[in-house]
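Worked example 2:
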Amino acid sequence: MAQVPADREADEETALADEQEELRRVEVGSDAHGERLDKALVQLVPEFSRSYLQRLLEQGDVRLNGEIGARPAHRVRLGDVLVVRMRPTAQSLAFRPQALALDVVYEDEHLLVLDKPAGLVVHPAPGHWSGTLLNGLLARDAGAALLPRAGIVHRLDKDTSGLMVVARTRAAMDGLGRAIAAREVSRRYVAVCWGRWDRGQVRRIDAPVGRDPRNRLRMAVVDTTTHPGKAARTDVLGLATDGRVSLVRCALHTGRTHQIRVHLASIGHPLVADALYGGAPAAGLERQALHAFALAFAHPVTGAAMRWQAPLPPDLAHALDFWGLHYNEKQSPDGDM
């Protein structure tokens, strides 16, 4: 399993913070005399934010004249002694090595390709400051620390499984970045969506994607004359259907956040178990039914044509069996949609 259990992750963060904590002793001078304790802290320890120092107060990490638990509104006096126990923030600990079991399907001196499991966050972000793919890459390869984002050149959503390429050298990172920008990296996904999508039916969804103006946690197809958005195109091919749900293949021509999920939901075919975009759960699926099954590009250093395919993860394979939908793993990642 590539992820760190939440309780263990919290224990590791606490242990590391304890190792790196600092005790700061400061004395209240005339400038801070009569100030509220929380405001005095900001003056006396100015390199930290007010919110961080407020959190230390709430956690009991500030002693006033040897006593814990002083209220933020307490008025300090000239000569009072504060001892502040400062710990690294979760964000400051984010970019550190953390051993994870990564499923690497190809590796050379310039790049690696891995099969990301559902549930693994690619890059640290609020709520996920550790246990990410970036942490695992830093632990696996000492050279990753020399590269921006540890060599990550594209992402998959937390609950999307499948193939990703990661650079191991700066030359590969620059080359992959150019190829992605020029749309020379072929990415194919399989998805299970709600509704009937007949086998062989092809549809091109060419609609700009931007932040949903009604819900900032979501993306949406937007009218760019009134809301910010970027051009986005997804080609979709029907593979199988039972009339209620359908197995489809998706080809990305752009890489917008949540693009496939947004595009399919916008035309009335939300992904199964995609709660954010209105897709009801079914067949035991607990995450959106989306898997990056194929990846192809020219090697950024040697120029050699490279191609990989990843089998369906067990949860998606079980769901297809449940519905009696056939998936051919040998279908070409390239070719017409």
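The chain has a mean pLDDT of 89. The helical segments are 6-20, 37-44, 50-58, 133-140, 170-181, 259-266, 314-323.
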